[in-house]
Write a structure and sequence with these properties.
Distance between the termini: 27 Å
Low-confidence stretches: 1-8
Helix content: 55-70%
Strand content: under 5%
Number of helices: 6
Mean pLDDT: 87
Shape: globular
Order of helices and strands: HHHHHH
Oligomer: single chain
Radius of gyration: 14 Å
Largest sheet: none
């Protein structure tokens, strides 16, 4: 669970996020099967980053990256999302933010979630 990856201030360390992104990239090649426990940890890490607040451009880029990579794996790994409605509402909120890059990432990921779990997507949006 992501509770183990949190540090002071509730922020996910950049190294943990980068590890999760590398696993997403490996998954995209589909050469190696990613173990379920690893996939679940990646999904939880990416979602935890989405919950962080944007205080700086670095925060915004970190959250946008997390959003982008969540969008790339959500169709395969949506079953690891504990609270789909909460995730969708968070993404919907991010689509209304002032940062163009984050807004674009959130919109794209929200659409991927709609493909992964259309019944929740319709109910939430």
């Amino acid at each position: 669970s992501t509770a183990n990856t949190h540090v002071r201030g509730g922020k996910i360390p950049l190294s943990v996020l980068l590890g999760a992104i590398v696993i997403c990239i490996i998954h995209s090649f589909k050469r190696n099967e990613i173990e379920e426990v690893v996939a679940e940890s990646v999904v939880n890490t990416l979602i935890a980053v989405l919950m962080e607040k944007v205080h700086t451009n670095s925060d915004m880029i970190k959250i946008s990256l997390s959003c982008d990579y969540l969008g790339k794996v959500i169709i395969s790994w949506f079953r690891f999302v504990d609270d789909v409605e909460y995730l969708l509402k968070t993404l919907l909120d991010l689509t209304n933010c002032d940062h163009y890059l984050l807004k674009k990432s959130a919109s794209s990921t929200l659409l991927q979630c709609g493909v992964a779990v259309p019944q929740s997507f319709i109910k939430t949006t």
